[in-house]
Amino acid sequence: MDSTTIVLALALGNLAICAALIFFEQPHQEGNVSGGRRPAALTIWGWSRQMQAAGWLLLAIGGANIVPERLALPVAYGLVIAGVAWEAGALWERAGGRRWRSIATPALVLAVGAFLLCYWIDEIGLRALASSLILAAFYLSAAAALARGWAQASMLRRFLALATALLALVVGARGALVLLAPAGWGWMSNELLRQLYSAALYLLMLLGGFGWLLLGKEDVQDQLARLEVVDPLADCFNRRGFFQVLAPWMALARRPGPSTALVLFDLDQFKRVNDSYGHPAGDVVLRTLVEVCKRQLRDSDQLGRLVGVEFAILLPRTSQEDAAMVAERMRAAIAATKVKTERAMISLTASFGVTAIRADDSSVTLLARADEALRAAKEGGRDRVALAPPAQAIPAEA
Questions:
Q1: For 24, what's the count of Cα atoms within 13 Å in the CB-facing half-sphere?
Q2: What tens digit of pLDDT does each residue of 223-268 get?
Q3: Within a domain: 381
Q4: Fewest Cβ atoms closer than 10 Å to its Cβ: which of 77, 230, 253, 379?
Q5: Reduced to 3 states, what is the DSSP secondary structure of residue 302?
Q6: How many distinct structural domains can be found in the chain?
Q7: Are 240 and 228 a contacting pair, CB within 8 Å?
Q8: Which stretches in the chain have pLDDT values below 50?
Q9: Residue 48 domain boundaries
Q10: 157 and 16: one domain?
Q11: 293: CATH
């Protein structure tokens, strides 16, 4: 396959990916949590593909003598380099590296300037050297973005990182061998090296396109899996997630060892907040008070939203008396907190019911006992902590 055909294939491939982006992740008219805007990483990635498509197309046109080569080549390579740099930037944006712009912009200016200098000195040798090494460097940056958080990364991200790094080294090898062995190196002729270079660029285009789409699908699956066990408003476990966390501690309670406590609490008269100030204000109050509660807990403690404004807290290796002290600390923190909303400063109180997991407990009996203590706190005037009655000792048989 001649070079013009390969370059044209790269151009058309990137154009096809850009066309697919038009129909990918279109924002909904209603209920769109992002406010009708696409993610920044997707926008950056789309522009990077358009720049690469324009660059490769201009190279193909220049190779076919439609546009003067001395004009087409510098502009085309500048677009391709910029496109690959922004593709790496999109991956850094997706990985959470928000400071990539402050590094990418000067690096891109230096890279394009170095290429133009090499092109001005030598249109063939130094041009091939500069383009290969610069593109390889930016592709390695993309591989580093994919490899960020390697220990927690999925197998897909690890594969994409390794494959991108390997293909980037193939791209960079062309420039290195052109510098070290202009006539070829043994069986590695310049023609074979050029073919490998073109194949690597083509595979990087496919890998980048399909990889991005697969990562998007993986992110959606992760979000759906998280929503099964996490309450999105309170940012804590939902009822299902909390019972999943509770189950192993219920089993451990049947063995000798430190006790585990359960605390139920309910925000007192929360309905009046929604009725008086609206549900948006109620959401702000709820999120703020949940954050106040989290600050009173250890890393091993687990908070869950069971229903409405009723929450449960699992306190591993904590006695009922110690759990009551934790509940009292949370009660005081909630009562002292004033939440600023658009319409008013709102303060609330909370009632707490505390119990410990017993060896003969099921989740039904445990929750019923804690709920009974919570009801006692509310009937006692709210804004207080009530303990479940201790277990009745079984008399020994004569």
A1: 18
A2: 888 889 999 898 899 999 999 999 999 988 888 878 899 999 999 9
A3: yes
A4: 379
A5: strand
A6: 2
A7: yes
A8: 26-36, 393-398
A9: 3-227
A10: yes
A11: 3.30.70.270
